Amino acid sequence: MKLAVVSDSHWRTVADGRELVGNLLTGPFATADAVLHAGDLVTPDAALLFAPLPLYAVAGNCDSGSDLPTRRLLRFGRWRIGLVHGWGPPAGLEQRVLQVFADQTIDVLVFGHSHVPLCRRIGSLLLLNPGSLTAGRGAMRRSAALLYLGDQDVRAEVIDIDACQQIV
């Protein structure tokens, strides 16, 4: 199974993201089975851009008034994925999001907020921040991620959207 992973789109209107998402859906996300969005959609209608793929999203700090949950525990086959946006300053972000799921067993933790891509393991846990679809906040480039859920392993890659190449 292949999941497209995004965060921090910050689109004020659907039109703001239409071209980018169209390019992703015909490019690196073409064979994705679903999309995970780690928050800060800003406009709730942004979810419509990813159709017909199922979208699993959480609210971020810029999603005021959203009825999205602040965290989700998702299951795809044998794999359990924690999905949360994150909050606060960059220092300590990983520790804060890890605490959200401290009482549950997860295989992957997807988060956003920092706009900085990250893909690394802590023991058997894969920690994945896809960065930001729109850069900003000090991010050097627009990025997203692909999460591959195999029979025996899980892996991810962060891609530079503009260059269409793996960066992490």
Automatic annotation (TrEMBL):
InterPro entries attached to this UniProt entry: Calcineurin-like_PHP_lpxH, Metallo-depent_PP-like, PdiEstase_YfcE_CS, Phosphodiesterase_MJ0936/Vps29
A single GO molecular function term of this UniProt record: hydrolase activity
Domain Calcineurin-like phosphoesterase: 1-149
EC id: 3.1.4.-
The keyword Transcription is assigned to this record: no
Pfam families reported in the protein's UniProt record: Metallophos_2 (PF12850)
Position of the signal peptide: none
Gene3D superfamilies associated with the record: 3.60.21.10
Requisite cofactors: a divalent metal cation
Acyltransferase recorded as keyword: no
Keywords linked to the UniProt accession: Hydrolase, Metal-binding
PANTHER family, sorted: VACUOLAR SORTING PROTEIN VPS29 (PTHR11124)
Similarity section: Belongs to the metallophosphoesterase superfamily. YfcE family.
Protein name per its UniProtKB record: Phosphoesterase
